[in-house]
Amino acid sequence: MFQIHSLVRRFVLFACLLLSIPALVSAQGIRPRPTWWFGGAAGANINWYNGTAQLQNDTLIGPAPFHKGSGVGPYIALGIEYRPSKVWGGMLYVGYDDRRGSWDDIVLPCDDCPASLKTTLSYISIEPSLRIAPFAGRFHMFVGPRIGINMAKTFTYQVKGQPEIKDDWSDIRSTVVSGQIGMGYDISLSSQHDRTQVDLAPFVSFHPYFGQDPRSVENWAVSTLRVGLVLKVGRAAAAPQREVEVYEREVEFTVQAPEAIVIDLRVRESFPLRNYVFFDGGSAEIPKRYVALSKDDAKNFEEEQLQEVQPTSMTGRSGRQMAVYYNILNIVGDRMTRSTGSKITLSGASEKGSEHGKARAEAVKKYLVDVFGIEGSRITTEGRDKPKIPSEQPGGTKELDLLRMGDQRVDIESTSPEMMIQVGGDEHYMMKPVQIVADDPDPLNSHVIFDVTGAKELLTSWSLEIKDEQGKVQNYGPYTLDRETIAGKTILGDQPSGDYKVVMVGQTKSGKVVRMERSFHLARTPDSPKEAIRYSILFDFDKSQTVASYEKFLTEVVTPLISDSSTVVVRGYTDIIGEADYNLILSHERAMEARGILDTALAKSGKRHVKIQSFEFGEMPDKAPFENDSPEERFYNRTVILDIVPIR
Question: pTM of this prediction?
Answer without folding.
Answer: 0.57
